[in-house]
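Internal ticket - ligand job 494, zinc ion:
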Amino acid sequence: MTDLPPPSDQPGTTQSATFALIRPVLFASGIIAMVLGALLLAHWANPQLAAKQVEPPVASSLALPEPEPPPGLTAADLQGFQLRAPEPAAEVEPPSNDRYELTLRLEKGDTIDKMLDDIDVPAADRKEIDEKLQVLLKKKKLAVGEQISLIIQPVPDQPDVARVLSLSIRPQPEREYLVLREDDGTYRGEEKVHKVSTRIVRVEGERQGSLQQSGVAAGAPSAAMVEFIRALSYDVDFQRELKEGQKFTVLLEQLVTSDGKVMHPGRLLAGELRLMKRTVAVVRFRPQGGADGFYTLQGESVVRSFLRTPMDASRVTSRFGMRGHPILGYSAMHTGVDFAAQHGTPILAAGAGKVKMAGYNGGYGLYVRLTHTDQIGTGYGHMSRLGPGIKPGVSVRQGQVIGFVGSTGMSTGPHLHYEFYRGNQPVNPLTQKFALRAALAGKDLSRFQGLTKEYLAQLKSAPHVGDVAPPAKPQTQTKAPAKPGTVPQLARGE
Ligand SMILES: [Zn+2]
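stdout (structure tokens):
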């Protein structure tokens, strides 16, 4: 009763209520005006200046009112995970879904616990997952390079905390170890034995538009095409070497049940792509005691110590070197390479290393600098936000998401400014050569050569995918709490 104002106060209350309503509007208008002003200035300022590594005071203050959406994955971000999405159709599914798939590679001296810690999985969850996994694996050791497929859901209000919904390891196609999160928040281990047989088929196509889509149109699963593109991307400059109409063939291993059901639409075994001046091929192989990976026909691992481009699906919009300034008329050094990509596209660590810097850095906007060796570093500018767990001092794996494409700092549109440092000097990232590839030898090499001979013959003679079965529909094989249609193990190797 005492809370109610006396009747005589009514008009006054109405008046102040009206003002209270208007106040935020006035405040918002002020903010909008500031942001507009900032945008206008940012538009004037041009990217070349950022490249000179000067820190213009204007740009630093402009970076503060970040006109970005709040943290948390949005549908646009998920679109960026093109290499992770099992099927293109998945992208147009429930927009409310904030969970995402992540495939990490076990490095030398690595543990699952450390891997999960790096992506900010809470300690209690890590402990339980690890315990369940130990029971499943029965002291079996995981090989370096083994793929760990995760389905992650960020914790509401704590975007830096990653909740693991499922973890899957599949050292052999027929054996899968799963740790799944239950509704009550506990974890449960499960070993799946896939009683299926394999069948080798071939998909032939011609590149029309994106290579991935061309493969899907020809009957290959999206995940296999993604693996193919990723295996080639260490060697092929898709910008310069790929043209419309170029032919490709991929060899797939399908998993089929005894009654002919396609359990897995096809794991990539080998693939061949004709380029303008050469033909490239990759072959899947698992050396004795090692992890499964792709190799050139000469038996060299396709994996380099650095990715050629720190993003999937991007195009170079500005190269390294002296660049004429369109407005001011003078030339300036562009210390990196610009890749245009959709806002929110994940940016990947080009190589394993440590985060040296993660934060606002003048004209670079939101910036991450990685140190890979005492001589080599990489820099990433204009991000919209940082990847989970990215802060100075933490270690990152090659291919780990360190941030998302944005347009912060002096930038005229969403793009990544990517730099490569050798002894603190910026060098052209696209021309760096890394002869740090593992080559097969001894028994592995002779086994590889035999297998390669077989695969090359099958690339020409295996039954065409369309001739053996009706269009393969991926089937959910696990009880992983994924969105409908998602088959976690298809993401393996992506
Ligand atoms: Zn740039």
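Auto-summary: The first strand starts at residue 100 and ends at 105. The chain has eleven helices and 22 strands.
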